[in-house]
Amino acid sequence: MRTTARSAILAAFLTLTLAIPASATPLTFPHRNQDGFPHDGPPFVTASSWIIYDETTDMVLASSDADTSRPMASITKIMTVLLALENGNPNDQVVISEEAAGAGGQEIGLVAGETVPLSALVRAAMIRSGNDSAAAIAEHIGGSIDGFVAMMNERAAELGMENTRFANPHGLDAPGHYSTPRDMLIVARQAMSMSEFAEIARSRMMVFPDTPSGTPRSASNTNRILNSYEGTIGIKTGETPNAGLTYVGAAERDGRRLFVVVFNSVGSKAHFADAIRLFNWGFEDLRINGTLSAGIPYETIAATVEPSPLVAEAGVETLLHAAAQGLTTDSPAPANGETVSAGAEVIEITRYPDPAPRSILSTFTYWLGLVTGASDG
């Protein structure tokens, strides 16, 4: 039994070492059943392109056609609301223009000439997916729709969204308006690092100020799996004739945070079904069984209690189970901001191995010693 376990550890370590070159390469899913590890791969989904990312370990778990630009629909509003929170004051009073009120598509029902707080507009844009609210935000923050679109593209370039171009603040089909799953993952992580955005993204309902004539306005979140999928914390849905169904989702379980992005899912509510399949695969089939560090094996690991993500302090951290699956890392640009909720309880687990190696070669020797019996670690 011990020999079998050691052989598994060595195989996983060799898989990891050989799979990761000096610079990160795109994820590959080789069919390597001969290595003795189960290898079912990711589930079938209807989406034309998608990505699933584990923020806890900074690892792309799998992707398909994740760098092909496609229409993005209302997940556009992630960038719109991000810019509103970065550049505006929630207490700002916004006068609604005729153009904003007549944006078309899904709306919260803005009336030209009324005055609405910016805080209400950002909630309507995210929760109701109001195109009128997105247009009003754009005019207020950017001075005009065109001015705001320029800000969107500038921010996208700053974040490293290399295959994205915005043409409007709401996501209605337009020439030159496109993105990719990998790029939307980048802006989603940036947005969710802001507590104000994260709170809005996980809200199931909202009450909007009444119309000037006194008609009540309220809305439930278009992200329906907030009510049905365990651990869901956001973030945004989308649908247009050209884009099909799009979705950016985030969920937390057992101290892990996963992001899923799907473009052009096909079928009724297929974007939700696709996301759930990918989440299930990530949480259940690729659950954490252990860690290998090429820098400092098993010194101190700080783990936060659910729902905050795991924080691992080491040179190069990866999942032992993921290594056994033949995964390689391909991380998007890191988001700026804390991924651990303020005030979250932290548990420190300290392990004391043999003197910790400080290089990849010495780490390999360390693990080889465990396998051959030269070390009792």
Q: Could you explain the architecture of this structure?
A:
The protein has helices at 2-19, 77-87, 98-101, 118-128, 131-142, 145-159, 181-192, 195-201, 270-285, 320-324, 360-372; strands spanning 49-54, 59-64, 93-95, 115-117, 205-208, 217-220, 232-240, 244-253, 256-265, 291-293, 300-304, 311-312, 317-319, 346-350. Helix 1 (2-19) runs antiparallel to helix 11, helix 2 runs parallel beside helix 7 and helix 4 (118-128) runs antiparallel to helix 5 (131-142). The chain has a five-stranded antiparallel sheet with strand order 2-1-9-8-7, sandwiched between helices. The protein has a three-stranded antiparallel sheet with strand order 12-11-14, with no helix packed on it. Strands 3-4 form a two-stranded antiparallel sheet. The protein is built from eleven helices and 14 strands. The chain folds into two domains: 2-67 and 288-372, no CATH class; 73-284, Beta-lactamase (3-Layer(aba) Sandwich). By secondary structure, it is an alpha+beta fold. 44% of the residues are buried. Residues 16-39, 289-331 and 337-358 have low confidence and may be disordered.
Entry summary:
By secondary structure, this protein is an alpha+beta fold. The chain has eleven helices and 14 strands.
Cα distance, first to last residue?
16 Å
Average pLDDT, all residues = 78
| CATH domain fold name of the largest domain | Beta-lactamase
Report the CATH architecture of the largest domain.
3-Layer(aba) Sandwich
Q: What portion of the residues fall into strands of 2 or more residues?
A: 15-25%
Could you tell me the radius of gyration in angstroms? 23 Å
Widest sheet: strand order?
2-1-9-8-7
Q: What global shape is seen?
A: globular
Order of helices and strands: HEEHEHEHHHHHEEEEEHEEEEHEH
Poorly predicted regions:
16-39, 289-331, 337-358
Give the total of beta strands.
Answer: 14
